[in-house]
Amino acid sequence: VESNQGETNQYSLAHDILHEVIYKTQTVEKRREKYVDISRTLIHNGYGEVDPVMVANFLLESDEKRLTLSPKVWADVLWNAGNMSQERGNIHRALKFLRLGEKLLNIDPSLWDRQQRVTYHLAFLKALYVNEEEQEAREFYEQLLQEYLEPHYQLEIKMIYIYCYAFNGEWENVLTLGKEILGLLGCKLSYRLGIWELIRTRILYSKKRVSRIMEVAPITDSRILKILEVLVAMFPAANRTDPKLFTLINLKLAFLSGKHGDSPYACIGYASFCYILYFVFKDYRRGNQLQEKTLELLHEPNHDSQRSIAYAMIGTFTYHWTHSLQET
Fold first, then answer.
1. Count of helix runs (H) and strand runs (E) in the chain
2. What pLDDT, in 10s, does the model give residues 99-133?
């Protein structure tokens, strides 16, 4: 194909077969260099943001020595591609992207602020565990705990790891780490079910308050939200391994949701107190009133992320006690 560019003629090969012949006659080293150039061109044209997975696929085949000259550009694309691949269920590809990104990040960590580095590290940690690289994940987890000693980073790292344990069904480890995280948050989970805890929680769920659940203001305290998140992470593990702890977690979720207000976890707290009203207080009327309000609240969009747990809780433990078999 001939085209005029200014005073000179430009020639290019248009046929796919000719392109393939030229490609196959090049050395591996030459191809890897060209992949870097292709990646740079794609990023220049906006594909690093629009389609980071496409760019990252070329980076995996590129000459890594050339990538080390601009590590931040490539690592940012690889991190986005890794997250996108995990969301799409391509966990093996995600690990490849994030592993290369981690390698580039370690060339000059000062190019990223400390929070960014932690975020990138945690994505890699999660990918390792999901891909069953458990030994490497454990070693990397311990390394991160030693490197990032600030309490808020310790909390972030442990929160990712508790979900890794849960993903793998390691229930005892979930509970052990969950109690450790709650300790960091200043929340003690006592194994004793005291009468005072039951009474003060029941007061929070009076008939009047239950009728106004839809109007409750959202929780703004980040510490309370994090405690609720940890309790919800521990919830299935306790159900599988420790019935007494399961009841205590139910009570704690119910108390915090009743006292502090609405949150993505509130319906789980309300469903938890339905369980206690039914099986501890034997108050089926109040339990059903709270249950109906909880089911109504579950249709609100800000409760969709934890909807399945609340439905499972109500459907498994309480709904059939006050509804006909046909409705359950």
1. 19, 2
2. 999 999 999 999 999 999 999 999 999 999 999 99
| One-letter amino acid for residue 198 of the chain | L
Tokens of 44: 């220049």
Rounded distance, CA 208 to CA 77, Å? 53
Helix (H, G, I), strand (E, B) or coil at 2: strand
* Cα–Cα distance, 132 to 128 (Å, whole number): 6
The burial of 127, by beta-carbon neighbours within 10 Å (0-12 exposed, 13-18 middle, 19 or more buried), is given as: buried
Q: Is the model's pTM score more than 0.85?
A: no
Residue found under tokens 């080293």? 29
pLDDT tens digits, residue range 164-202? Answer: 999 889 999 999 999 999 999 999 887 776 788 889 999
DSSP calls for 251-283: HHHHHHHHHH-B-TTHHHHHHHHHHHHHHTS--
Give the residue from 311, 307, 308 showing the smallest Cα distance to 291. Answer: 311
Give yes or no for a contact between 57 and 42, defined as CB atoms under 8 angstroms apart.
Answer: no
User: How far apart are the C-alpha atoms of 225 and 260, rounded to whole Å?
Assistant: 10
Q: Which of 162, 172, 169, 147 is nearest to 226 (CA)?
A: 162
Length of the chain (residues): 328
**What mean pLDDT comes out for the span 238-251?**
91
- Residue given tokens 């052990």 in the structure block: 176
Place of tokens 């205590």: 248
